[in-house]
Amino acid sequence: MKYVSTRDTSKTFEFKDVFIKGLADDGGLFIPEKLTKYNENEVKDFKKLSYSELAKKIVYPFIGNFMSQAELSGIIDKSYSAFRRDNVVDFIKLGDRTVLELFHGPTLAFKDIAMQLLGNFYEYYLNNENQKINIVVATSGDTGAAAIDAIKGKTNVNIFVLHPDNRVSPVQRKLMTTGKDENVFNIAIKGNFDDCQNLVKSMFADKKFSADIKMSGVNSINWARIIAQSVYYFYSYLLVENASEPTNFSVPTGNFGDVYAGYLAKKMGLPIDKLIVATNQNDILHRAISKGSYEAEKVSETISPSMDIQIASNFERLIFDLNNGDDQQTSLDMKNIKEKGQYLINEDKLNKINENFLSARMSENETLEVIKNVYKKFAVVLDPHTAIGYGAFDKHNLKGNNIVLATAHPCKFPGAIESAINVKAELPNELTFILDQKENYDIVENDIEKVKQHIKDRTQ
Asked: Which of 6, 45, 245, 304 would suit a FRET pair with 214, their CA atoms being 20 to 30 Å apart?
């Protein structure tokens, strides 16, 4: 499989380039030239596979000659051996919808599912190529911990994680900052998540700096993460009771990566009806999908901090699709977004979006109410992000199999849980030790030169 950039389709890339670079040199995002598509019978045949076996089937066509099928099989088995569920995820019926629990990995978030795989891909690549790289990643809370857990202690790779100072939950922060591995560096930026993301993008765009430190990225724009995340859409679809009914997914998302993975699965032949983009009051995606106005506003702090984002990095991949693969138009659209903070979607394109996507916005009070009602009815605690996904189905009257992606363990957001139901959401026993551990991170100004120098000083 060959890949191109959303901003220049004239050059092709191997999976190895796409995986290591993360972002194309022209600032665009990588996408496959063409996709493997499965017919109805092939999708049905997947039903007998375990999660790991399904992942091997879905992932292999994307990676080309990066590794053999047998090597991929070993890496997938190793990646998912650290999960607290044999089949990686849990599928729980709550009333008229089903919750797909994706938080049974080592750092209690859906991001572990892709990140454990990426960490082992890096190890394989660096051992074979005898190279050393530095991963630089921005996090709104969960990506950082998942990336650190996947990379810590590995040879030939350092990881630098930028998080917004005082804008992630204490448990999210401690999962990142209490490790003792020498290849892990935590940086708290005086700003919000979008500031962190912009700093990382600027470092990638600085060709000299990124080449000097051999920079790589594992943010949600990395195509390898999208592939890995598409697997659980296939897996959960195969668990539904009545496949003759339409299947819809509600996805709490800020960066559009997780819901884009569902869209990818649909393009590969999975019969998904609608994908609901569920947002908090930082609702740029909801405004884009419901009204055609993709326009950045000020970021508000909420009880669902992983979605406190106003620039949805993966949306560029959808813009490229809306432009029918026109790289020049996509470049122009992205330039306008950068310079004017705005992208207006015409009626034809909006209709095209709504064939696949709906959206919903949940206020803080609505989110707390969902947590309270679900706990009262089912004695199940939802984290605030999952509650937004659950509540989004109440905004749309969709028949059939309605699946909510549960993206994080409730213990990561104890303040919101206590506020909603007066219950202390406990960490799983194997992670309680982090609460007493000393934290290790540096606070740095939101200044690109200072951040670059900080990283350079630690890569010598």
From this structure: 6
Tally of domains within the chain: 1
Q: How confident is the model over 95-116, as pLDDT tens digits?
A: 999 999 999 999 999 999 999 9
pLDDT digits (tens, 9 = 90+) for 43-63: 999 999 999 999 999 999 999
Asked if the structure places residue 242 within a domain, the reply is yes
- Long-range contact list for 55-63, CB < 8 A, 24+ apart? 55/80, 55/117, 55/228, 55/231, 58/227, 58/230, 58/231, 58/234, 58/268, 59/117, 59/227, 59/228, 59/231, 61/1, 61/36, 62/1, 62/15, 62/32, 62/36, 62/223, 62/227, 63/1, 63/15
Closest of 386, 459, 457, 440 to residue 163, by C-alpha: 440
DSSP for 129-185 reads HT--EEEEEE-SSHHHHHHHHHHTT-TTEEEEEEEETT-S-HHHHHHHHS---TTEE
User: Strand runs (DSSP E) across 165-289, as ranges?
Assistant: 184-189, 215-216, 247-252, 272-279
Exactly one of 21, 56, 111, 201 is catalytic; which is it? 111
Would 444 be classed as within a structural domain?
Answer: no
Q: Which two tokens stand for residue 201?
A: 């993008």
Domain extent for 416: 90-107+225-421
User: What is the Cα–Cα distance from 445 to 188, expressed in whole angstroms?
Assistant: 8
